Predict the structure of Permuted papain-like amidase enzyme, YaeF/YiiX, C92 family.
Amino acid sequence: MKNWIILFISLFLSTLTSIAEWRDGDIILQETAGQQAEVVKLATKSNWTHTGVVFIHQGTPMVLEAVQPVRVTALKDFLKRSHRGNYQVMRLKDPSPLTQSSISKAHLWAKEQVGKQYDAQFLWSDNHLYCSELVWKVFQSCANVELCKPKTIRDYDLSHPKVQALIKQRYGSVNRLPLSEKVVAPSDIAESPLLEIVDRPSKKG
């Protein structure tokens, strides 16, 4: 029993240390639940269905995320939404683009995005944003870093009936889906050669 208590305390302290070491610009990938999450998994062949970027506010990690609407969420609340406790934190291998100037610019950029509507059609427009688009654009706009090469909608597997059903729900018809639309999925960010994993307490996506 004593050994189990020691192990629990050790794991708890290691988690606190990990969270305390998170930095401005860290990216959180998350497995979530729900209809859209299931469709994203089917289309991208990955468990990662949501993502956000960490901002340190008065010493506290917060997460900028595109949900409805775009908002800043307390880290603990963000992590509570992780399906099966599955999330992963990634960081630029080369931190040099994250200068004080680019971080300050990113904070200002983030404030401008808060309140924007979630983009349920996954269009590459700044008027509405979806999660991985927001993460990609904050790095590109503020640090001149392209985390990955954007794909097009046709690059994903759209064949599953559940994927087809959501397309019809969002666009009215499969024929109205803009197949050449530029898009970035959470899985694309997870596979970025510019990033490395710095915290992964759960299973891999």
About this structure: Helices lie at 2-20, 35-44, 75-80, 100-113, 131-143, 161-171, 186-190. The first strand starts at residue 27 and ends at 30. Strands lie at 27-30, 50-57, 60-66, 70-74, 87-92, 151-152, 182-183, 195-199.
